[in-house]
Amino acid sequence: MGTIDVGSTGFMLLSASLVMLMTPALAFFYGGLATKRNILGIMIQSFASLGWTTVLWVTFGYSLCFSGGEGGFFGNFDKAFLHGISIDTLYTGNGKIPEIVFIVYQMMFAIITPALITGAFVNRVRFSAYMIFLTVWQILVYYPFVHMIWGGGLLAQWGILDFAGGIVVHATAGFAALAAVFFVGARSDKNSTPNSIPLVAIGSGLLWFGWYGFNAGSELQVDKITALAFINTDVAASFATAAWVAIEWTRERKPKLIGLLTGSIAGLATITPCAGFVPMWSAPIIGVAAGICCYLAVMLKNKMKWDDALDVWGVHGVGGVLGTILLGVFATKAINPAVAAEGLWFGESTFFFKQLIVVIASAAYAFIFTYIMLALINLITKVRVDEEHEKLGLDVALHGESAYDEGSL
C-alpha cells in the first residue's frame, strides 16, 4: 500500500469542488439568458443533474467508465456501488491520491456535461422527458467516451488525447444540443431576450473560476503540467474574449457584455482538450481562433435560423471540435511526455489526422444518437411542451413556481 500525496490530494479535493461549482454557475448563466417566465425551468435542469447523476455514477457509472474494458467501448460492473473501494484504496493512475477523490472529481464532469445541452432547448422541453434524456444520454454517450479516452478504452489505445474534455464533454454535448434543436423545433416566441444580464455575468465569472479546477485538475496531481494547464486556460479565455469583443464591436459599433461573456466561454471550451499538452505560446493563438470561429458559428446558426437558444452548439460544440483539432497541431512531447506523437506544427501529421477524424466521428455519433433517442423518448412521453404551456412559461406551467414575486415592492 502506497502513501497518499497530501498536496495533490488537497488540490484534487479543491478541484472537484471547483468543478461542482460550475453546475450551479451554469444554472445562473442559463437562467439569466432565459426569458422571465422560464428561469426556474432551465435552472432546475442543471440542479437535477447534481442529484441524479451522482446516483447513477455511484451505482454503476464510475464502474462502466473506469473498471476493466481495456481497448473497448465500455468498462464493466466490477466497481458498481463502489465495490472493492475503501478509504485506503489509491488511484492506480498515479498512486498519489485516494481513488475516492478521483471518483468524486470525475463525477463532477459527469454532472455538468449533459447539463450543458439544456441551453439549446430552453423553455420547450418537459421535465419528465429531460430526466429520461439525462439518464440515457449519460449511459450511451458520455460513459463510453469517458471510457474510450480516459478509461483505457479504444480511443486511448489509438493514441487519441483529450486533456480535460474537448471530445468527452464539449464536442459530444454541443452536437447533441444541435440535434435536440432540430428535433424539438424553434421557440414559438421569437423575441426571447435575457431576463438578467447581471445573472449571466455571475454565472460566467463562476464558470471561468471553476474551469481552473476543470482543466488544471485534470492532471490529477500537482506538478508543472498542472501549472501549465492553469495559465493556458486563463490566457486562451482572455484572448478569445478580446477577439469576440473586437469582432462584435467592429460589426455592431457597440461592445456587448453578453458577447464578452460568451467569448470567454468559447475560449475556455476550446483550450480544454489542449491545456496540459501544448506550449504556452500557443494559448493566445488557440484563444483568438476560438473567439473568431465560435463567433462565426453563432452567426451561421442565426443565418440558418437554428433555434439553439443559448448557443450551446456554437460555443461548446464548435469550441470542443476546434480545440481537439488544434491539439493535433500544437501538442508536443517536449511539454508533456504523455504526448506520444508530435503535432502538425512540429512536423508530424499522423496525430493531427487521428484527432481530426475521431472528433468528427464523435460529434456525428452524439448528434445522430441524440436525435434518435429523443424520437424514442417522444414515444414514451411527449418531449416538447404544449403551446399553451410554452406561452405561459415553464416555471408556472411545469413547476408551479415563479422566479420573482411580481406582486411585492
Tally of DSSP helical segments: 14
Top-tier CATH class: Mainly Alpha
* Named CATH topology: Ammonium transporter fold
For the residues shown, what is the average pLDDT? 95
Rg is: 20 Å
Strand content: under 5%
Largest sheet: none
How would you describe this structure in keywords?
about 400 residues; mainly alpha; 14 helices
Structure description:
The chain is globular. The chain has one domain: Ammonium transporter AmtB like domains (Ammonium transporter fold, Orthogonal Bundle). It starts with 5 loop residues before the first helix and ends in a 10-residue tail after the last helix. By secondary structure, it is mainly α. The model has no long low-confidence stretch (mean pLDDT 95). The chain is 66% helix and 0% strand. Helix 2 runs parallel beside helix 4 and helix 3 runs parallel beside helix 6.
Structure at a glance:
This protein is 66% helix and 0% strand.
Per-chain topology:
Elements: H1 6-33, H2 39-66, H3 99-117, H4 127-150, H5 154-157, H6 166-184, H7 197-216, H8 224-252, H9 257-271, H10 282-304, H11 312-330, H12 350-380, H13 387-392, H14 394-399
